[in-house]
Amino acid sequence: METGRHRSQSLGSAGLAFHALLCSSLLLNAVFFAHHLLRSSPTATPERLGDGLSWALQAAREAEAVAAADCSGHGNVFLDGVTGEDGRPGCECNRCFSGPDCSVRTPNCTADADSGNPLFLEPYWRRHAAASAVVFSGWHRLSYITTGGRFHSVELDRHIRLLHRAVGNAVVDDKYLVFGAGSMQLINALVYALSPDGNADSPPASVVATVPYYPAYKSQTDMFDGREYRWDGTTATWSNNGSRNSTKGFIEFVTSPNNPDTALRKPVLAGSSAIVDHAYYWPHLTHIPAPADEDVMLFTASKLSGHAGSRFGWALIRDEKVAKRALSYVEQSIMGASRDTQLRMLKILKVILANLHGKEDIFAFGYDVMRSRWRRLNAVVSRSTRISLQKIPPQYCTYFNRIKEPSPAYAWVKCEWEEDVDCYETLLAAGIISRSGTLSEAEARYTRMSLLKAQDDFDVLLERITEFVDAEEHGRAPGGSSSM
Amino acid sequence: METGRHRSQSLGSAGLAFHALLCSSLLLNAVFFAHHLLRSSPTATPERLGDGLSWALQAAREAEAVAAADCSGHGNVFLDGVTGEDGRPGCECNRCFSGPDCSVRTPNCTADADSGNPLFLEPYWRRHAAASAVVFSGWHRLSYITTGGRFHSVELDRHIRLLHRAVGNAVVDDKYLVFGAGSMQLINALVYALSPDGNADSPPASVVATVPYYPAYKSQTDMFDGREYRWDGTTATWSNNGSRNSTKGFIEFVTSPNNPDTALRKPVLAGSSAIVDHAYYWPHLTHIPAPADEDVMLFTASKLSGHAGSRFGWALIRDEKVAKRALSYVEQSIMGASRDTQLRMLKILKVILANLHGKEDIFAFGYDVMRSRWRRLNAVVSRSTRISLQKIPPQYCTYFNRIKEPSPAYAWVKCEWEEDVDCYETLLAAGIISRSGTLSEAEARYTRMSLLKAQDDFDVLLERITEFVDAEEHGRAPGGSSSM
């Protein structure tokens, strides 16, 4: 019995322990089971998956899978990239990188500083992935009509105005807003709007700009070649006679900050209708002395947020008749800017607005990148007697409320040596593709280098420039036109 | 001992059962725990939520929340809709419906059959929500450059060609493909491309069309008013003299099926450069007798998939020089169609292609809708002596491989009574907004009624038409110009 009782007792206490353990375990089973049921109930129907998501889940997974692909930090995979043999889009490598994962660097690669492709902002959008993503349903805005009975998104209009007010770079309250497929489209829309009516008995308007100017003003005006206007050269031809009447009927393109030389500009001709292109008038690319308030102003998403591929720009127009003509142009030519792009831009503007003056301010981010590039470029070029850059003093910026160092979109390079008559060719011989000043009707001694492309582009550019300046110091110029 | 042994034995067998139960329970817990760990590991960081989704989750939830809003089947909520006091976009109601959830029907509402807004396909995209959704990352294609170094998506180009081949409505193998911001933009792009060069010593091209024609050909040509071309009226003026030489230098717009009268058309002028607009040449809106193979053809997403708001169209062009000029026009005017829209269109085309000839074929779906509308409209109008519709016989369609009933996009209405000289006004007095034939330079006795809008639009239209015909039968015409 002793043993038996002992066993019985020990069995009894073991039994209690068993009971306790079993009960706990069964309870835990029940908890897990209930939890499992609760969690998995949305997956009971095939339509409901992924934290309550249904139809958007598949597209979200596709986008994340593509975004997660490894391109070694030197490229991107995009949803609509060219598909390889596996049916999936592959890495699109930055210039000077190649290989399936963009890990192979091309030796002695020529730097491409031609295009004003605003990829310097791409890292910003990767940092704000969740806030800036947009999901399009298959039935999103099939209609021609957007909100308000027209082709414009009322909310996008409102957010553009909010942004200008918050940044303080343009007076919007007394302006009409006209969207276009990039500010590019609005160049001709505004020329049309400011020219005499086709039925009017007026001579064609003279379209002009001041050297150095953005070449598209001329090339687009020449291409459309409407009977109501004509390209009439540069303001230098017309400004000297000084008479106000003589430049009535002129349409003057003004870019401020200017492309290519980044200087702030004002109209030159008194009495002309000015189209003031403020593509670069944002605090990451210039100081903002005051809100712009010209009668006709142009802006573009491209240089604001970096969304060049979206093709979205807008005009701010004081006069109702001019605004209506510009709107009519956009409606008759393309029936309004893509509603897809309008939705995407709305999301982008919301992110920008939500972060203004915070630690994730897009202008602070962009300014840091561009100021750093300008500093590094200047540090190298300051050692050169052969090339020089435009001089930009530090300036007070109303947006940042302090003196700012320069952070220009472009370097306007001058070849100083007498023999370097064609600066574009001089740089090309040194492995740098730039945009010749002659395209802006400036001297061939000037050329434009783009600073706002991807970091890889800038790094290669700085390498080539450094070699170029080093060669000059060591008495052996890699540039073909050098006589040293 | 007996008891003890018995107890011990029973405890032993109970113990075994306990053991078995406990082991099972513990094992089950282990399984649950492992499962829980595996499932919840992605949520360990706040970035990873929702079935492994991270940055796309928030946007997916927003889109689904908006899509789930209740507008009583008579409206939509869109992500970029005008926000109410609660900061959320509200229902945008179909015409003749109002109220916060679009549940209030406007009594005696005027039917709007003016615009060719292709909303009849909206239900198709709701049925294919998961397959047709697209997620845009904030950094999707910031660049000007898309694939292949240009502004065109290589994959979209490929899928457009796949679709034409699969549908059999156009020969693509020997054609260049040029994208535009809607086929609307390509109207002028092609006029430009087919006109003499600006520097050439040639007279301007004469741009013409055959009555009744799509009014934008004239209005857009007049608006751009390039020196290299001019609107030169209708083909009737020129076709009678019959000489081939006399119509050299002519650019003839041909729409097939025609807008407004839906007849298949061929160029009228021998020797002219024809721009053949095949916007409606898809199997839901016409029979397809054979693949189109003209030198210059126009297509648009609007009438193919219903995505009018996306502004995407394309031209198929045989001659390389003409194609290059058209491409240059699009590049210089807008730097290519929005890359956002190009990505969305790619997804849409993939869905269409995946379902061709299946039970979810978009053309079968669209054909069913449009055939049913045409039948119902004809059933009513056949009782009328006052108005008549264009006659369309059943025709063999190569795509469906059978004889098809008509399913036209528009009703081309003729007012038969002598006193109804302005058919637009006659219908307007009966509560129907149509598009007067005079806009196409046809007689005022003709007017166009759009049949491809939303079902609500068609239902209201059919109500008004039924009342109109009933009134005629009962000897009291609601139309203002009736003398009965």
Gist?
Two copies of one chain form a homodimer. By secondary structure, the first copy, chain A, is an alpha/beta fold. Chain A has helices at 2-40, 57-67, 122-127, 129-132, 154-167, 182-194, 216-224, 236-239, 301-305, 320-334, 339-355, 362-381, 423-429, 455-473; strands at 75-76, 92-93, 97-98, 104-105, 111-112, 134-136, 176-180, 205-209, 229-234, 250-255, 273-277, 296-300, 313-317, 387-388, 395-397, 402-404, 410-415, 432-433, 435-436, 446-450.
When the domains of chain A are counted, the total is: 3
Q: Helix count of chain A?
A: 14
Biggest pleated sheet of chain A: 7 strands, mixed
The CATH superfamily name of the largest domain in chain A is Type I PLP-dependent aspartate aminotransferase-like (Major domain)
Q: Could you tell me the radius of gyration of chain A in angstroms?
A: 30 Å
Please estimate the helix content of chain A: 25-40%
Q: Are there runs of chain A of 5+ residues with pLDDT below 50, and where?
A: 1-8, 37-49, 479-484
Mean pLDDT of chain A: 90
Q: What separation lies between the terminal Cα atoms of chain A?
A: 115 Å
* The CATH class of the largest domain in chain A: Alpha Beta
Q: Largest interface by residue count?
A: A-B, 124 and 124 residues
- In percent terms, what proportion of residues of chain A is strand? 15-25%
How many beta-strand segments of chain A?
20
Architecture per CATH nomenclature, i.e. the level-2 architecture of the largest domain in chain A: 3-Layer(aba) Sandwich
Task: Enter the CATH topology name of the largest domain in chain A.
Answer: Aspartate Aminotransferase, domain 2
- Record the strand order, biggest sheet of chain A: 7-13-12-11-10-8-9
Oligomer: homodimer
Q: Structural class, from helix and strand content of chain A? A: alpha/beta
Q: How would the global form of chain A be characterised?
A: globular
Domain Alliinase C-terminal (chains A, B): 111-468
Family (chains A, B): Belongs to the alliinase family.
Pfam families (chains A, B): Alliinase_C, EGF_alliinase
Protein name (chains A, B): Os01g0717700 protein
